[in-house]
Amino acid sequence: MNKSKIVPILEVLFTVIVWGASFIATKVALRDLSPVTLVWMRFGIGVVILGIATAARRQFALPARNELGYLALLGFLGITLHQWLQSTGLQTAQATTTGWIIASIPVFMALLGWGFLKEKLNRMQVAGIALSAIGVLLVVSKGSLSGLSTGKFGTIGDFLILLSAPNWAVFTILSRRGLQQHPATWMMFYAMGFGWLFSTILFFTGPGIGEIGRLSSDGWLAMGFLGVIVSGLAYIAWYDALKVIPAAQIGAFLYLEPVVTMLLAAGMLGEPLLLASVLGGGLILLGVWMVNRSA
Known about the structure:
Elements: H1 6-29, H2 35-56, H3 68-89, H4 95-102, H5 105-116, H6 123-141, H7 147-150, H8 156-179, H9 184-204, H10 217-242, H11 247-252, H12 256-269, H13 275-293
Helix pairs in contact: 1-4, 1-10, 1-12, 2-3, 2-9, 2-10, 3-8, 3-9, 4-8, 4-12, 4-13, 5-6, 5-8, 5-13, 6-13
């Protein structure tokens, strides 16, 4: 192994494990907090961490006036809306289900590229999309596909998580333009900053400061992990690794994320390891691989 890639690979593994564990930490924090308060606290901490990193790297600069609307849109989609969907969804959705659904995001990106950017899909990609769709149905239904005809199919949280997947795909596609012009840490700092400002409005017109006093010791640990590690250090590590490892190679590590979530959810939250979830998750990952392999 090239010694120059050892540190970046460790950074990627760190990030994937942390992101996989984030769904477990979110469910722990939601025992004490509402989704709005969780998002506000988490990304308030994350903005501080990214701000320090941006300043330390001498990348700090104010955005141009014509970029403010673009960065605000990214913040709303990628932070305010996305995290509200996930946090609210995790009140009733299992962490394991969430991890597998989020793994399908590349499939939604391929569909968006086909539908709006006129990108072509070959037969293998279409087959991959179909396999991933079947996998998502298996995961959400926990193997009881007959629920499709009766209407008893998954929880409200499962559908909110499912909505968050194409939303993140839109955010990712829109981010491409900015990432061609600015450092990734700078971009995330401002996008996260705008997202946090939008969530601040929801926070102070909703639960307010008083809810923070309900946090237990486990809740504080979960919030510290989500804010400092997940929303701060993990993003920095991921984008640092992208400078050394090609995107196609680094993307392969993301296949580990839902597996990490599943194992941690079973050990820490007592979520059952269902055969349908494992099979469905396998179909999702196979479908994502087919889509990316043929891109």
